[in-house]
Amino acid sequence: MKEVPGGGKADLIKKALEFPVMSLQSCRLCPRECAVDREVSIGFCEQTEVPRISSAVLHFGEEPPLVGRGGSGTVFFCGCSMRCVYCQNFMISQKNNGTDISVEELSEVFLKLQYEGAENINLVTPTAHLSGILASLGLAMSNGLNIPIVYNTSGYERAEVIRLLDGIIDIYLADIRYTDDTKGQKYSGTNDYWTVTRNAIKEMYKQVGAFSDRRYDAPKGIILRHLVLPEGVSGTNAMGEYVAYELSSSVPISLMSQYRPVFHARDYPEISRRITEREYEDALSSIDQYGLTGWYQHFSGTESLRVKPLGRRE
Ligand code: SF4
């Protein structure tokens, strides 16, 4: 079994849970800061005080180093702090399709994934359930959980909350959806997406650095995902500039071509289609221009894995 760097995670979890922001009595876990008591009410994410998951599986469609041989032990949490009109997971994130799960049961889910060979525990859209997740992780760690923990997020996070995860999370898998607040407002109902996200990502980078599966005993670092949207909506060039100049060109980018106009996307003519090959090529050129590395998807979308390293395209 691999050793996770930075032992003592159980202690860090205990300390993190003592911070007032972890209380669900006046929930401020995400940038929405609804301040609702989730035992009696629900906020923007429509989640109660009980963790709720849609599924827990060994996932082989994530970035290659996260999949390894055993697959990524992926747990999909319900609820989201964003309302993307094109959300590819809208049944889970916005329709709340899932099952309530206790802290004890969730810790067993984590342990079962490890037992089945998972390379890591991949927490998808975890923030609304962060308190319960940390309690479950602490319990699971006391029972032998020792694979890396992945925080898989839209990027729209409070830097103050992310700071509490220092030493607990090994890998941040964060989206950069837009590089312009007005786009976030129009397509995701968030009026400060980029203002908030760029700071949250800096905090993630500060904690773990650029992703590497060679520098440490176990994989660690940040990977940035960028879904290319039609008509330049996702702001790929500005994303490349931000990564190169405000983080590091060694931060891997996972450039995704898989956009489909699902959910309410057809109400917005400019994003009511898939991207063209030209648009994807332009996005790749922007990445190249800033000397960034990572992975890209085959444009046809017939292959699910992002198997090709950037910078070595034929
Ligand atoms: S986690 Fe949910 S209830 Fe809490 S601040 Fe965010 S949207 Fe509001």
Which key phrases capture this entry?
TIM Barrel; ten-stranded mixed beta sheet; disordered N terminus; about 325 residues; alpha/beta; 10 strands; single chain; binds iron/sulfur cluster; 10 helices
Describe this structure in words.
- With 314 residues, the chain is α/β, with parallel strands linked by helices.
- The protein has one domain (9-309): TIM Barrel (Alpha-Beta Barrel), CATH 3.20.20.
- The chain contains ten helices and ten strands.
- The chain has helices at residues 9-17, 64-67, 90-93, 103-115, 130-142, 159-163, 181-188, 193-208, 236-247, 277-289, and strands spanning 52-59, 72-77, 99-100, 121-124, 149-153, 171-175, 221-227, 253-256, 294-296, 308-309.
- A ten-stranded mixed beta sheet has the order 3-1-2-4-5-6-7-8-9-10.
- Iron/sulfur cluster is lined by residues 27-30, 32-34, 36, 43-45, 47, 81, 128.
